[in-house]
Design goal:
By secondary structure, the chain is an alpha+beta fold. It is built from ten helices and 20 strands. A six-stranded mixed beta sheet has the order 6-7-8-3-9-10, sandwiched between helices. Strands 13-12-11-14-20 form a five-stranded antiparallel beta sheet.
């Protein structure tokens, strides 16, 4: 598999710049996820890599060889789209083998590859059916199978699960994770769903407005986000952000705001030297609240609504005028409008610069 490198890659449509100069290196054999909100440039990046869009500047290298002048079919890539794009008049076996037949691959080899991939995706019993006879999840498996039989060096996935219902998405995520561990291939996956990114990616690249905000393992992005955007995008439910002023009392630094005053842990306070008496943004994850008020520092919140999710509930509460999300054990029901007290694990607090939005 090639090592893929973007060097100052740009894309513009007329006067509209979609991708500012982009630098990105994808390691050999890595499952890389490009994630971000709609319009952030992730699908454009993938399509440029696939040769479906011409770049406006810069270059892409496979093992340090420039490939921007190569046609899509010459790049040894296989792509799975959001739209299944299956031929309705062909059965599943012919849909999966279409590229192989175009390349005049021997019939016996085609049958062996199609059967092997179909069995891996649990669609071996569907090979004689037409796409209209399959469910959405089965058709998505066929689309993946069509890419896999090509045995390309790199597989590209453009939001392949977005058309599936929640249950099927969860099942397909599991199958993709198993496939990732089975195949020794480069995989580049585009999604706006941060849960898909967290569960599938060896490395996640978070994008916003065509700019890479941060890249790293799921754990790195969750525990050490570079800025407020990454902190708010990675993690579900999303991180709470509260306006706060840093105040110092008896050598302890506090984040004080409307309805709260929380002491900051010493390592964080030390890194904030020089920020005392300044306004910042305080970040608190919903999982950082405990119903045991002996844990951490107490905070009073008013319950607006409880969203029951089974074993866990997400509580929508108010702290002053700010909305605060709290993860809560569903076995302890709470009443709308009630005043609740939680303990905040202050060692999990994050502080962001009010202007630059960088984590301090």
């Amino acid at each position: 598999m090639p090592t893929i490198r973007f060097e100052q890659v740009e894309k513009s449509y007329g006067a509209v710049r979609v991708l500012p100069p982009l630098d990105l290196a994808l390691d050999d054999g890595e499952f890389t996820v490009l994630v971000g909100p709609s319009g952030c440039g992730k699908s454009t990046t993938l399509r440029i890599l696939a040769g479906l869009e011409e770049l406006s500047g810069g270059e892409i290298f496979f093992d340090e060889k420039p490939i921007s002048d190569l046609a899509s079919k010459e790049r040894d890539l296989a792509m799975v789209f959001q739209d299944y794009a299956l031929y309705p008049h062909m059965n599943i076996a012919k849909n999966m083998s279409f590229a192989l037949r175009l390349n005049k691959t021997p019939k016996a080899e085609i049958e062996t590859k199609v059967r092997r991939v179909a069995d891996m995706l649990n669609i071996g019993h569907l090979l004689e059916r037409k796409p209209a006879e399959l469910s959405g999840g089965q058709r998505q498996r066929v689309a993946m199978g069509r890419a896999l039989v090509r045995d390309a060096s790199t597989f590209l996935f453009d939001e392949p699960l977005s058309n599936l219902d929640a249950k099927l998405r969860g099942k397909m995520r599991t199958e993709l994770a198993e496939m990732r561990d089975t195949l020794d291939k480069n995989m580049v996956y585009v999604t706006h769903d941060q849960i898909e990114a967290m569960t599938l990616g060896d490395r996640i690249v978070v994008m916003s407005e065509g700019v890479i905000q941060q890249q790293g393992t799921p754990e790195e992005l969750f525990k050490a986000p570079a800025n407020k955007f990454v902190a708010g995008f990675i993690g579900s439910p999303t991180m709470n952000f509260l306006n706060a002023e840093l105040t110092s009392k008896k050598d302890v630094l506090f984040a004080k705001g409307d309805g709260f005053e929380l002491p900051l842990p010493k390592p964080l306070a030390k890194s904030l030297n020089g920020y005392a008496e300044k306004t910042v943004t305080l970040g608190i994850r919903p999982s950082s609240f405990s119903s045991d008020t002996k844990i951490g520092t107490p905070i009073d919140l008013r319950l607006v609504v409880s969203e029951y999710l089974g074993a866990q509930s997400t509580l929508v509460t108010r702290c002053g005028d700010a909305e605060v999300l709290v993860e809560h054990d569903s076995s302890s029901p709470v009443r709308t409008g009630s005043q609740l007290t939680f303990g905040v694990r202050t060692d999990e607090l994050m502080v962001f610069d009010k202007n630059t939005e960088l984590r301090l």
